[in-house]
Known about the structure:
Shape: globular
Mean pLDDT: 85
Low-confidence stretches: 1-11, 53-81, 352-360
CATH architecture of the largest domain: 3-Layer(aba) Sandwich
Number of domains: 3
Helix content: 25-40%
CATH class of the largest domain: Alpha Beta
Bound molecules: guanosine-5',3'-tetraphosphate
Distance between the termini: 28 Å
Structural class: alpha+beta
Amino acid sequence: MAQRTVxxxxxxxxxxxxxxxxxxxxVISHPDAGKSTLTEALALHARAISEAGHVHxxxxxxxxxxxxxxMEQARGISITSASLQLMYRDTVINLVDTPGHADFSExxxxxxxxxxxxxMLVDAAKxxxxxxxxxxxxxxxxxxxxxxxxxxxxRPGREALELMDEITERTGLTPTPLTWPVGIAGxxxxxxxxxxxQYVRFTATAGGASIAPEEVMDPEVAATREGEAWETAAEExxxxxxxxxxxxxxxxxxxxxTPVLFAAAVRNFGVHALLDVLVDLAPPPGPRPAxxxxxxxxxxxxxxxxxxxxxxxxxxHRDRLAFARVCSGVFERGMVVTSARTGKPFATKxxxxxxxxxxxxxxxxxPGDVVGLVNAASLQVGDTLYxxxxxxxxPLPTFAxxxxxxxxxxxxxxxxxxxxxxxxxxxxxxxxxxxxxLRGDQAxxxxxxxxxxxxxxxxxxxxxxxxxxxxxxxxxxxxxxxTGQWAERLxxxxxVEVLRRESGELLALFPGQWRVRSVQRTHPDVVLEPLxxx
Length: 534
Ligand code: G4P
C-alpha cells in the first residue's frame, strides 16, 4: 500500500511529469549479499515516503504482521514482497522488495514484472552466485536494464578486474564501471569517479549508523594522499577505457551493458552514487505492452496489474491484500476500477485500512508506483485493472516447478474448506496446482519452484482455512509443456505423468533430464517444450 507522510508536499501535477520523475527497481542478489543492508542504507540516504507492506530485514529489524510471521522470524528470512518509496533529488524511487530466500523465487521473479530496472548486488568475495544468476536470467528474458553494485568492498575479496571478467563471461553483459575502487577489497578508501576523473573519499562513521561523509578531490590531491592505491586505480581505469568499458546509455537500456559501482552497504559507502545512477540513468516507466499487441501509454487512463497477493495482514479480518503496479494514468483512492479477467468492478475505497500506522494514506499514485489494495479476494496474481479504456496486460510468467507433492485434507469431512483454501492459494500464486482425471480433486498435485512454498501452503491451509493437509512428495523434478495429442503416449511411459494447470496447459512431469532423453528417444515426434527456467 502506498502511503505518504503528512508533511509530504503536493507533488507537481500531470501524469507525464509525475511519471518522468519515477524510478521503480528491484535488487537481485543471492541471500547474504547485503540486500537488506543496502535497502536500509538507501532509506538512510533518501527520504522514505512510504512503505508498502514492510521491507523487512533479518531478525531485529522490521517485522511484518502476517499469519506466517512466526515462520519468518524463526528463519530470519523474508517471505512476503512489498515496496518502499523514497524521495531523492526530487525523484520518487520505488524499491520493490524481493524475498531473499532461494525457496521463494517464484514470488521474486514476479516482482521483476513490476519494475523498470534492477540492481544486481554482488558480494565482492563471492562473485556471481547461483540465485543472482537465476534472477539475472529473468531480467535478461524481460529485457530489464541492470546496474551492478559490487558490495562488501570493505572486506577482503576478489580483484576488481577479475570480477569484471566474471560478469562478462557469465552474464554476457559488458561491465562499464562508473566508479573504480581506490584500495583493494578490505582496504576501501574511496572511489575514482570515472566520469569526472575525481576522487571520492569515504569516511567511516561509527557502525555505519549515519551517512558517511564523502570528500571530492582532484586527481593530484588524491595521488598525494593515497599514493599507490590511487595510482593503481587510475591505471586500471585507463585499462578499462582502452577496452571500451565506458558507460553507454543506449546499450544499458537495451540490457547489453551494465554500469558498475563499488560499495560497502554496511558502512554506507557508495550509496549516494547508486541513488544518482537511479535518478540519472535508470529508465522511468514507459508504455506497457498489452495482450492485443498495442501498448498502454503512461498518459492513458488508469491501469495497473497485480503482481503480488498477500493474505492475513490483519489476522482478525482474514484480509487479502493485492499489490498492484500502476502502469498508466492516476490512481485515486476510492476509484472503482474494472478487472479485465472477470469484467467485474473493484472498489478501491478501503485502500487506507491496510495499515493502521501513524502515516496518512496516499490518495494518488502514478505509473511506476505500487499500491496495496485491501479486500482483494476477487483479484488474482496477474490481473489487469483499468478505468474507462479497457486493456489487458500479458499474463505474468509462471516458472518451471522443480518440486511436486500431492496434497490431501487430513480430515475428509473438511473437504469444502480444503477446496476453498487450495483455490485461494492457487489464485495468489503461493503454489501452482496441477490436476488430472486420474488423481481426482481430492488429491491434486502442488508444484513449486522452492520447497518452502509447500510449507507456507501447509501452514495457511491449517491456520487460515481450517483444513489441515498432508503432503506426499512425488519423485518428479522436471516439468515440460506438452499438448493433448501426446498425453496418452506420455502417460503410458513409466515414471511420467501428465497434469493440467488451471490455465488448461498440460505439463509432463519427469524424475529427471535422463528420463526426458530416454522418452524422447522412444517417441521422437512427441513435443516437449521447456517452461520459463527458474
Ligand atoms: P541479504 O539481505 O542479502 O540476505 O543480506 P544482509 O543485508 O542481511 O547482509 C548479510 C550479511 O552481510 C550481514 O551480516 C551484513 O551485516 C553483512 N553485510 C552487508 N553489507 C556489507 C558490507 O558492505 N560489508 C560487510 N563487511 N558486511 C556487509 P550478518 O553476518 O548477517 O550479521 P552481522 O552480525 O555481520 O551484522
